[in-house]
Structure formats: structure tokens, C-alpha cells
Design goal:
This protein has 8 helices and 21 strands. By secondary structure, it is α+β, with helices and mostly antiparallel strands. It folds into 3 domains: 119 residues, no CATH class; 83 residues, no CATH class; 145 residues, no CATH class. It has a 5-stranded antiparallel beta sheet, sandwiched between helices. The protein has a 3-stranded antiparallel beta sheet with strand order 6-7-9. A 3-stranded antiparallel beta sheet has the order 13-14-16. The N and C termini lie far apart (83 Å).
């Protein structure tokens, strides 16, 4: 700004009429302008440096003579001698006051002086208010997953910009429960985008949505009303998986199966930066892993020859059970919809170590 002023001064025809006897107050040459939205306004200032120099050096701007080198140097000293600061530049409202302060280095010049000047904020635009009701009426929610780990799917049906481009969120997304009122939020970036377009959230902005339609999984296995039926089905499926052969000729394979422990986990417990397929039994989705009932079984696989001689061939530990056990309104599991899960550990793993592995995954013993 000062370089421009000096260039303009250097090419303008001026004549020195007389020396100025009193210091000129710089604040009288400062203009402040306000822009933006009420309560979010900003202030900027401009200094009429040409007017200041003309007044201090008592120059005749209509004269056609160019200033001599001594005058140009004195003008430059004047413009280099002061600094301007403003006490408030942002988040302004109509009616606020801002103070401009001019400070002067009197070792540079005695011809100007500093000071303060107050300006009243005005002409800021009135914002368009966004209410909680507006948001609640123009968002469509679908909730997915299980209660306690639910996620919100949000469709924005605002018909005007920028509201139709705002990504709304809900607090505790990923941990939503049926029946709770989830708060709808706008992040700082989205709120800033609204401000830039002349919109503001009302002072008591607090839209909410009731969480519903999430599947229910039991907190404890004993909360499953038909737990005995689920256990019976688990045993049937396991026995079918490890079924004795019944050949008329040659040897047969038989299995001795003992349940070591029955365990349950309400929610899968992978950390946010882990992928679900890294879980201990394979690539089941996170939703399928919620509500999991498993048995830890020791299995002895033997061969029986035609003379009914039995020889142990292999011993191992098996996890077998169901995940995604969803309860109906009567807290019963639908047996026909159960998804089986299993994993086999060879004899390098003890039964106790296998149990510890699953305890590390959040499973607890079912105590009836």
C-alpha cells in the first residue's frame, strides 16, 4: 500500500508551499470497512497515505512541478514511521465497536502523531437462520446394525444450496442404541461453509433423531430366551460336522467329542484400525460377529478296523458355534437363521490356550 502511495506521489505534480508547524494525527486518515455476516463479520482498514503526505508537507496537488529528491525522501520517512493495529478483526456484530491504534516512531519524524480512534460496526448482512426443526424435517434416517453398535445412514433432502450439500452426522455413530435420542451435528468445516453462504445455526441448535429398527443381540447368553434350543442345535451341527463313518467294509473313523467350555460375546471387539477379516475365524462381517455363542471342544479322532480295534489318529481342539444371533421381540433367536462359525487348532495348542485366545477376543464363560 505504501509503495503504491509513494509511486503515485512521485509522479504527481506537486509544489511545496510551506512547512507544517503541528503534527498530523494519523488516525484521521484511517478508514475502516466491515464485511460479512452479523456476528461473523470482519473488519479491514485503509490509510489515505496520499492525503496524509499532502497535508503534512503542505503540498499543492494541482501544481505541475515534480517534487525534489529531498521532499520525496521526507515523504517516505513519514510513511515508514507509523504502524496501524486494530483490536478486533473477526466475529463482529452490528453495533460492536473496534478501536484503531496508530503508533509513530518519533525518531523517524516529528510531523505525525499516533493515537486511537473508535469505529462502530455497521452494514453487516443479516444471516439466514438454520433451525433444529429445519434439519429434523429435511433429513431421512435409516439405522443399520445391532442396538449398541448401530450406525446411521443419512439422506439430505434439503432443496436449496448450500444446505443440500452439507454432510450432517450424529453423535456416537457406530454405538447407537434403539430408543435413544441421537444428536444431529454439523462439523466445523460444514458450519464454516454455511457461514460463507450467509447461513447460521440458531443459538439453541440441537436437532435430534430417535434411533430405531436396529437388531437386538443379547447382553449375556442367558438373556437368550431359547438358549437351550440354540445349544442343542449347536451340538447337532457339530456332530454332523464330525460324524462317525459307517462303512460296511474296511475301517471307520469315529470322533470322541467333549465340550470344555461354553462362551459368549455380545459385540465384536476389533479396534477401529483393524479389518474384520483378521478376526480369529475368518472373514465374517462385523454385524455377523455380534451376538456370538461358541463352544470349545476337545476332539479325539480314531480309526476302528474291521476287528473293532480302535487306534487314535489325531487330537485337536475345535471352536464351533454361531454368530449374528439376533433376538426377536420375545428375546428368542431364530434357529433357522443362525450362521455357524468354526476354527480348528492342532495338538500344538492346549485346550487352556485356545480358551485364553477367545477370552482375548472378548468371550466370557456362560454361567447358568
Amino acid at each position: 500500500m505504501r509503495k503504491l502511495a509513494l509511486v503515485a506521489f512521485a509522479v504527481m505534480g506537486v509544489t511545496i508551499l510551506s512547512a507544517c508547524n503541528s503534527a498530523e494525527n494519523v488516525t484521521e486518515y484511517v478508514e475502516v470497512s466491515f464485511s460479512g455476516m452479523d456476528s461473523q463479520g470482519s473488519a479491514s482498514y485503509d490509510v489515505d497515505e496520499m492525503g496524509l503526505v499532502e497535508e503534512v508537507l503542505d503540498l499543492d496537488e494541482d501544481a505541475q512541478d515534480y517534487p525534489d529528491a529531498e521532499t520525496a525522501e521526507e515523504a517516505e520517512e513519514i510513511l515508514d514511521a507509523y504502524d496501524i493495529s486494530i483490536d478486533e478483526e473477526d466475529d463482529l456484530s452490528n453495533g460492536d465497536t473496534v478501536v484503531i491504534t496508530a503508533s509513530v516512531d518519533d525518531e523517524e519524524t516529528k510531523k505525525i502523531e499516533g493515537g486511537e480512534k473508535e469505529f462502530t460496526v455497521e452494514d453487516l448482512d443479516e444471516p439466514e437462520m438454520v433451525t433444529s426443526e429445519d434439519v429434523e424435517e429435511n433429513l431421512v434416517f435409516n439405522f443399520n446394525g445391532v442396538s449398541g453398535r448401530g450406525e446411521a445412514q443419512i439422506d439430505n433432502i434439503f432443496d436449496e444450496s448450500p444446505l443440500n450439500n452439507i454432510s450432517f452426522e450424529v453423535e456416537n455413530d457406530g454405538e447407537l442404541e434403539n430408543g435413544e435420542d441421537a444428536q444431529i451435528t454439523v462439523d466445523d468445516e460444514a458450519e464454516s461453509a454455511l457461514h460463507s453462504e450467509g447461513y447460521m445455526l440458531e443459538d439453541d441448535f440441537n436437532p435430534t433423531v430417535e434411533v430405531e429398527d436396529l437388531d437386538k443381540v443379547a447382553e449375556k447368553a442367558t438373556d437368550i430366551e431359547n438358549l437351550k434350543d440354540v445349544e442343542r442345535y449347536m451340538e447337532e451341527e457339530l456332530n454332523d460336522e464330525y460324524k462317525d463313518t459307517d462303512h460296511d467294509f474296511g475301517s471307520n473313523t469315529v470322533y470322541d467329542i467333549d465340550q470344555e467350555k461354553l462362551m459368549y460375546r455380545q459385540f465384536e471387539n476389533l479396534s477401529d484400525d483393524e479389518e474384520t477379516e483378521d478376526d480369529i475365524w475368518g472373514d465374517a462381517s462385523a454385524e455377523e460377529e455380534n451376538g456370538s455363542l461358541i463352544g470349545i471342544y476337545s476332539i479325539k479322532e480314531s480309526e476302528v478296523d474291521s476287528d473293532d480295534e480302535k487306534e487314535t489318529k489325531e487330537e485337536y481342539t475345535v471352536m464351533f458355534g454361531f454368530s449374528g444371533i439376533i433376538l426377536d421381540e420375545d428375546d428368542k433367536a431364530n434357529i433357522s437363521e443362525l450362521e455357524s462359525i468354526s476354527e480348528e487348532k492342532d495338538d500344538t495348542y492346549s485346550v487352556d490356550s485356545v480358551i485364553q485366545l477367545y477370552e482375548g477376543e472378548g468371550y466370557e464363560e456362560v454361567k447358568k
